[in-house]
Amino acid sequence: MKIDNLQFENLFKPIPGNNPTRVANDKIRTSPFHYVGLLVVTFPNSTLEYIGTATIIGKSKEDKESLYLLTCAHNLYSKNNGGKAVKVKFIRACNFPELPFPEVEAESWYYPDRYEKVDIPNDVPLRFLAENLIQENIDLDYGIVKLKETVRCDASLPTIEVKTDEELSNKKVQINGYGWFNEAMSHAKGELTGIQPQSLLYPISTAKGASGSAIMDQTSLDIFGVHTRETDENFNRGVRITEDVKKQILEWM
């Protein structure tokens, strides 16, 4: 199934020495890829569908089923497109044209109340904005999607985890999502090279469509952050899972 009228800007952020690989069809049903999916979103001012990435998460490491997806706020709210999304659906483990799981519609979606005031229009280059405005946007750019149907897995689900600066320094992480190969899943990995109080920096290549991807440990299902946007330098950045962020996410779940 091809998503009709897909609005996709092929804006790459290549990092020297780091190119994502396409996830093979025989791997798409395995961990961690089968927890990841394509988020398809419609906004008030358009019938076009926009893509992003979301990850199934549990409240605890014992959970094997969930109604909830972790993503970024700018997948769910767009100042350019009329505000809060009016329709959201999730295609788990989408690896177009391979679609191993049925599409699931979302019931509701949440992001921080203050995010709407700091949303950056998608036609404004970051180099034209003050660093403090960019940072405030990144700090609040996370969200949760609640599905209409429970997603069940054979093993424990990924969970959001709060780690110290020392634990995160040079941590080996992975980002699995969309955009680099359009609606087929990409896999990229690298190290966290910048640990800030509310955000993470990493030299991992992404493209539009990867927004909302979990910043996940390479050897476990621990999630340390949410990928949000590129920068004008050789690293990308995302929201760090802090105690406050975790508390808010769990309140939505």
UniProtKB/TrEMBL annotation:
Transmembrane segments: none annotated. It comes from the Bacteria. Keywords: Signal. It holds the Pfam family Trypsin_2. SUPFAM superfamilies: Trypsin-like serine proteases. The keyword Signal applies. The keyword Nucleotide-binding does not apply. This is Trypsin-like peptidase domain-containing protein. It comes from Empedobacter brevis.
